[in-house]
TrEMBL record:
It comes from Candidatus Fischerbacteria bacterium RBG_13_37_8. Pfam families: HEPN (PF05168). SMART domains: HEPN. InterPro entries: HEPN_dom. This is HEPN domain-containing protein. Coiled coil: none annotated. Residues 9-118 form the HEPN domain.
């Protein structure tokens, strides 16, 4: 595995561990943000692997998936679309207090678990 690809994977792992720590401390908005970031970096690892070039500086997971040639199942595809949209809200909060209510512990835990599942799927798509 090329160093650049490994770097993306290591960074994604670090970000996901940060998401887990944020969740444990009740910082749900940033848990979601870090989940998105960890997915973004895992997809960028695949892009780096197949193109041999630095991935585009984009946060759009659906766009990045298309470049990476990854085809998740329908459930994962829907989740990826949703977390891409949620990421925008965490970056540009229109109503911060409403956002605090929207990201309940239960909802955020689902996002965290689904993110972990998709990260594991992407890892399986990478060449060892």
């Amino acid at each position: 595995m090329k160093d650049e690809v490994k770097n993306w994977i290591d960074s994604a792992r670090y970000d996901f561990e940060t998401a887990e720590n944020l969740f444990a401390s009740g910082r749900y908005i940033y848990t979601v943000f870090m989940c998105h970031l960890s997915l973004e970096k895992m997809i960028k690892a695949k892009i780096e692997e197949i193109t041999g070039k630095a991935p585009p500086r984009s946060h759009d997971l659906e766009y990045l998936l298309s470049i990476a040639g990854l085809s998740p199942d329908k459930e994962a595809e829907i989740f990826i679309s949703e977390i891409s949209n949620l990421s925008i809200v965490t970056r540009y909060p229109g109503d911060f207090h409403r956002m605090l209510k929207d990201f309940s512990k239960v909802r955020t835990e689902f996002i965290l678990n689904k993110t972990k599942e998709i990260i594991e799927w992407i890892k399986k798509c990478l060449t060892p």
